[in-house]
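2024-03-11 09:14:02 INFO queue: dequeued item Flagellar biosynthetic protein FliR, len=257
2024-03-11 09:14:02 INFO validating residues
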Amino acid sequence: MLFTTSQIAGWIGEFVWPFMRIGAMLMVMPVFGGRLVPARVRVLMAVVLAAVMLPVIPPVPAVDPLSAEAVAIAVQQLLIGLVMGFMLQLVFSALVIGGHAIAMSMGLGFASMVDPQNGVNVPVIGQYYVTLATLLFLALDGHLVLISVLAESFHQLPIAAHGLSRDVFWTLANWGTRMFAGGILIAVPALIALMLTNIAFGVVSRAAPQLNVFGVGFPVTLTFGFVVIYLTLSNLLPQFQTLLTDAFTLLSSLEAG
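2024-03-11 09:14:37 INFO prediction written
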């Protein structure tokens, strides 16, 4: 059986372009995009997902794989995947911000560790929150919802030379502000409690100047900080779930230009 060049080009496009979108997202998204998951494993995951999604992906444009239009389509798929992964990455960055704010308030601003996912130094409290968020993401079937949103994206943003609209990039910038707000909301209960503790030590230092506030206050603030973190863990799940739901809703509403 002989196959024409157009048939071969069509088969290549049906697999390669979805693979580019899926692979780009897996390279930058949290949980699967960090250094904990080897690049070869992520590539294999992208190949498997692209093969599984082939039946639900709309027909792709029949263009020459070596033409300028094919290059434009490939660039657009990479860009769409990077935007989707980056939006999810911002959700986990909100937890790092909240953990950093708490660590600074309880005197652990100097205590940092290497994030095994990104290879950068983050506060230990922030890394603790990210670890909890990763477990919550998997426990809430976030990976399954992500696959569903990814499959739907091929209908919302079909494979073509034109990609994301300009409004998407403004939405992405506004989502960055949502990251900071979400981080502060996660940290607010602990920040208020630790602020009241510091105010109490300020009053004590005025009432008893001979008391070594720094020597007594640091271990008390540190201990109280861990107690507050334990008591406010119940606030982490609804805040993280809200951020994750908003992120998936935003991904589902992306439109082509």
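2024-03-11 09:14:37 INFO annotate: The CA atoms of residues 123 and 138 lie 23 Å apart.
2024-03-11 09:14:38 INFO item closed
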